[in-house]
Write a structure and sequence with these properties.
Rossmann fold, 7-stranded mixed β-sheet
Length: 210
């Protein structure tokens, strides 16, 4: 193992121990808050190890949670199907809700992938992603992505969007924002001062209310 690879693994391990568990708990809570008791099924697009989807299912026991991934992990905590990154392998309106957690900024086409999520959702899409309003935001987000994902072999596109761009993508797909929060508590102090700010959001986007 060369020095660069060893450094990368060390940095990734430090990130996982300091941030990952807290992040999963905070995100699972924010997502569960978007799920009402009438929702019976949830598709987790880009589910990773299935940890967040599993925790949302525990918080909302009525949910049947299904994952989909381009890189399937043998230790996934929820049922997971393979996905080509473009077309979800499900018919229209297959799930009450679809969630995409830090997935869309890894794609080249945010509106297109968001539209595919909306296609298979009966009621709406829950999105966790980033806001990039200036060059400094972009630099911080690139660093965060590199630390959190490079060691796991995740491809990085760094396709961060501004709030105006998100609003356009949401409108183009016939979705309406019914819930939007940027107070997520993902990072402990003092790291939150650099890495939280207004860089993250969770939104519930509903269908048929535009």
């Amino acid at each position: 193992m060369n020095t660069g690879t060893r450094y990368l693994k060390t940095l990734g391990s430090a990130h996982d121990s300091l941030v990952l568990t807290r992040r999963k708990v905070a995100l699972a809570k924010a997502i569960a808050d978007c799920v009402d008791t009438e929702a019976a099924s949830l598709l987790d697009v880009g589910c990773g190890d299935g940890g967040i989807g599993h925790m949302v299912g525990e918080a909302r026991p009525q949910l049947k949670v299904q994952g989909v991934e381009v890189l399937q992990r043998p230790d996934c905590k929820i049922p997971c199907a393979l996905y080509d990154g473009k077309t979800l392998p499900f018919p229209d309106d297959s799930f009450d809700l679809v969630q995409a957690i830090d997935v869309l900024h890894h794609t080249e086409d945010i509106p297109g992938v968001l539209g595919e999520c909306a296609r298979v959702a009966r009621r709406g899409v829950i999105v966790k992603d980033h806001l990039r309003e200036n060059a400094f935001d972009g630099a911080v987000l690139r660093f965060m992505d590199w630390v959190g994902n490079r060691a796991h072999g995740v491809g990085m596109t760094y396709n961060y969007a501004s709030r105006a761009s998100w609003q356009d993508a949401i409108k183009r797909n016939g979705l309406t924002v019914s819930r939007w929060t940027q107070s997520l508590g993902l990072y402990p102090r003092p790291f939150n001062l650099a890495f939280e700010r207004n860089l993250h959001f969770v939104a519930l986007l509903e269908k048929g209310k535009a």
